[in-house]
Write a structure and sequence with these properties.
By secondary structure, this protein is α/β, with parallel strands linked by helices. The protein is globular and about 50 Å long. Helices cover 40% and strands 13% of the residues. α5 links the parallel β4 and β5. The protein has one domain: TIM Barrel, CATH 3.20.20. Strands 1, 2, 3, 4, 5, 6, 7 and 10 form an 8-stranded parallel sheet that branches. It has a two-stranded parallel sheet with strand order 8-9. The protein starts with 12 loop residues before the first helix and ends in a 7-residue tail after the last helix.
Length: 341
C-alpha cells in the first residue's frame, strides 16, 4: 500500500519496551530522484515507534551523480516536513529526534562504486548525510571483493585509502555484501569499529549473503555491531516470519553478546520495483537464490518482534541495546570523530 500510513500500524515499540531509542539501520526507498510516492510510508515507520532509519542513496554500480541526486531529493522532502522528520548527522541529533518524537533519518552507500574513483567524494557524501558505506556490493569492485563472487578478492589499495579517509572523517565502515577476505581485512585495517549493517548468521541459514561465526566474532572484538536483516531469502527459505527473525537475533546474541547486535531490516518499500530487479539483475539477485521472490519483515512489525523477545525473557537492558542502543554507541564513537592516517 502506498500512502501516508500502512495498514495495521497501531502498536508502537514504546508500548512494549518503554521510551527506548529504536534504530532500523538500513531501509531502501526507490532510487528515483524527485519521486516521493513511497516516502509517506515513513510516517508508518515513525508511528511504529522507530526513532531513526538509515536510507540508502545508491547500490552496486550506481555512481556519484545518482547518489547525490537522491540525497538532494530526500533532504528536500524531509525539510518540508520538519515537524515529523529530521536529518541526523551527530549522536546529539539522534537524541534530539528521539526526544522530540520525530523520525531521524541518515543515509548510507551500498558500495564504493558511488565514489567514481575519487576519495574526495567521501567527504562530499559525509556532508550530504552519509554515515556508513560498504566496500563492495555482492560483486568485485574498485575497493574489494563481493560475497557473490567466486573469487575471494582482497581489499584493494583504493579500498584501504577509502577506509583511512572514512576514519579521518568519522564515517562508519561497513562489510555487509563484501567477500570474506575483504570483510576480514576491513575489520583489521580500520581504526574505528567496522559494522555488518544488515547481515545474518550463516550458521542459521546457509546463504552467501550471510556471514560466518568467525567474521561475526572478529567484528565484535573490534567493537562493531551486526544488524539483523529482515529479508526472507537471508532468513530461511524465503521465510519472513517473526519466529525465524528471532532465531537469527538470538543466535547472534548468544555468539557475540548483546553489545554487538542491532536491527537493520533492509526493507524495500517499492515491492514492484524489487520484483522487477529480481527478474532483471542476476548479479545482485542470482536466480538460484531468488526463485521465489523475496518476502520481507516490514518495519511496522518491529513492535510484534519486541513483544515476542520481551515474552521470551530478554532483559530490558538487552532489548534497549538491540533495538537502538548499540547503533547509537557506534554513532557516539565514530560519527565526526576523526582518526589520523
Amino acid at each position: 500500500m502506498v500512502g501516508r500510513r500502512a495498514r495495521g500500524t497501531r502498536l508502537s515499540v514504546s508500548k512494549i519496551l518503554g521510551p527506548i531509542l529504536v534504530w532500523d539501520n538500513h531501509g531502501c526507498m526507490p532510487l528515483r530522484p524527485e519521486d516521493s510516492t513511497f516516502l509517506p510510508l515513513l510516517y508508518s515507520v515513525r508511528d511504529a515507534g522507530i526513532s531513526i532509519v538509515t536510507l540508502n542513496l545508491a547500490y552496486g554500480r550506481q555512481g556519484a551523480a545518482s547518489a547525490a541526486a537522491m540525497a538532494a531529493s530526500f533532504t528536500a522532502w524531509i525539510a518540508d516536513r520538519a515537524d515529523s522528520f529530521m536529518l541526523v548527522g551527530s549522536a546529539e541529533d539522534v537524541r534530539l529526534a528521539h526526544c522530540s518524537g520525530r523520525l531521524g533519518i541518515c543515509f548510507d552507500l551500498e558500495g564504493m562504486e558511488a565514489l567514481d574513483g575519487r576519495l574526495a567524494n567521501i567527504e562530499r557524501f559525509y556532508r550530504l548525510g552519509v554515515r556508513w558505506m560498504l566496500a563492495a556490493y555482492n560483486q568485485p569492485g574498485i575497493a574489494g571483493g563481493g560475497c557473490l563472487s567466486e573469487d575471494d578478492d582482497k581489499l584493494t589499495p583504493f579500498g584501504r585509502d577509502a577506509i583511512a579517509e572514512m576514519n579521518r572523517l568519522g564515517m562508519v565502515c561497513c562489510a555487509t555484501h563484501c567477500g570474506y577476505r575483504t570483510a576480514r581485512e576491513m575489520i583489521d585495517v580500520s581504526a574505528h569499529p567496522v559494522i555488518f549493517s544488515h547481515s545474518n548468521p550463516r550458521a542459521v541459514w546457509d546463504h552467501p549473503r550471510n556471514i560466518p561465526d568467525d567474521l561475526m566474532m572478529a567484528c565484535a572484538r573490534r567493537g562493531g555491531v551486526i544488524g539483523i536483516n529482515g529479508f526472507g531469502p537471508f532468513l530461511g527459505q524465503n521465510d519472513a516470519s517473526i519466529e525465524t527473525y528471532i532465531a537469527h537475533v538470538e543466535y547472534a546474541l548468544d555468539l557475540v553478546g548483546d553489545d554487538h547486535v542491532g536491527i537493520a531490516l533492509d526493507y524495500v518499500f517499492d515491492r514492484t520495483e524489487l520484483d522487477e530487479l529480481i527478474r532483471t539483475d542476476p548479479d545482485a539477485f542470482p536466480p538460484a537464490h531468488y526463485a521465489e521472490g523475496a518476502k520481507m519483515i516490514e518495519p511496522w512489525r518491529l513492535p510484534a518482534i519486541a513483544e515476542r523477545l520481551h515474552d521470551r525473557g530478554h532483559s530490558p537492558q538487552t532489548l534497549a541495546k538491540l533495538f537502538g542502543g548499540n547503533h547509537l554507541r557506534i554513532a557516539e564513537q565514530v560519527w565526526g570523530k576523526p582518526v589520523g592516517r
